[in-house]
Amino acid sequence: MQIQERLGGGTRYRISNAIPDPLAENFAMGPYRNTDPAWFHHDVVMHNGRVYDGFTGRTGLRKQEYDELWDPNYLDILHWRPLD
């Protein structure tokens, strides 16, 4: 992932809905940044206690700040799985 390379490290995570959908392989994750992108997963990098993705900018966000970008009704069902 380009973000991980630019940061010089960190751990990649895949965020997905932890509740299985019996009719589909994946289940949408809910609104992010007040829009509903209908994502089934989203990849981020965690480095030095901050989360980075294509939307956070160069400084990233603390995990708590990043969590606040998601609809609070979905936050409890989001699962962070390390990819590295």
How would you portray this structure in words?
This is GH16 domain-containing protein. It comes from Streptomyces castrisilvae. By secondary structure, the protein is α+β, with helices and mostly antiparallel strands. It has one domain (2-82). Helices cover 13% and strands 29% of the residues. It has two helices and five strands. The protein has helices at 2-7, 63-67, and strands at 11-17, 41-47, 50-52, 61-62, 78-82. It has a five-stranded antiparallel beta sheet with strand order 4-3-2-1-5. A hairpin with an 8-residue loop joins β3 (50-52) and β4. The longest helix is centred in the first third of the chain and has 6 residues, at 2-7. The N and C termini lie close together (11 Å). The mean pLDDT is 88.
Task: Kindly list the characteristics that best describe this protein.
single chain; 84 residues; alpha+beta; 5-stranded antiparallel beta sheet; 2 helices; 29% strand; globular; GH16 domain-containing protein
Helix proportion:
10-25%
Side-by-side strand order of the widest sheet: 4-3-2-1-5
**Helix-strand string:** HEEEEHE
Structural class by sheet pairing and helices: alpha+beta
Organism: Streptomyces castrisilvae
Protein name: GH16 domain-containing protein
